[in-house]
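Chapter review: from sequence to fold.
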Amino acid sequence: MNKISKPKAKKNIPEGAKAHQEPAKKQKPRSKRHQPRGLDILYEDDHIIVVDKASGLLTMSNSKERDRTAYFALNNYVRKGNAKSRKRIFIVHRLDRDTSGVLVFAKSEVNKRYLQDKWSGFSKKYYAVVYGNLEKKEGVLSAYLAENVVHRMYAVDDPKKGKLAKTGYKVIRESKHYSLVEIDLLTGRKNQIRVHFADIGHPVAGDKVYGESEKGVKRLTLHAGTMTILHPQTKQQVTFEAPLPVYFNALLNR
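The token string follows.
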């Protein structure tokens, strides 16, 4: 099994290293001129490309933004600026605009389908700074989630009205006003982490949709820290890690 070394810890806070072992022949880095903005390339070979996406960057375009997206930037990157190049990338999954961390793209339709077909079985670990101190320091949050007409998710008791979502968590550091939690995404429902923690009275800091707007909190403090997948070529397990944003520690130390 190919596995990336786990991030070193300092005061129980992961500072994820980007070290990894190659599941396939790794490509040489391209020139700085074509490096995509807002993205740190964690791994690349002929089959996949894995990045650490910055908060504030869309995964793909919407009705208001076409070019400033991870998808657009990485297409330009693999084409080396040549718009006529036949090279392209394929979206496997998404992260919300304001969520940072590990984002995986495929370099072919076949690899995209392979990863998506097995996606529910892959391991995804997130980190979040939430308001307050949780009474239970470890557990599983479970609720049925539904979506309203303005595309906002909310918890319901009736399984006929929503889809079951489960979020495992463990508190790894606390301060007077905040807690840093390590999260295992046990299901993949839209906004489930944000909804679950808001539902128990500890919304993710900086969440303007499901939490409260607080002066001085600069961003949504939700980060996709590690992801373990099966490489579409070798079929071996490989884990990618993105370091915890420095801002998370700064917020906890306030």
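Two observations follow directly from the output. Confidence is low (pLDDT under 50) at residues 1-22. The CA atoms of residues 231 and 237 lie 6 Å apart.
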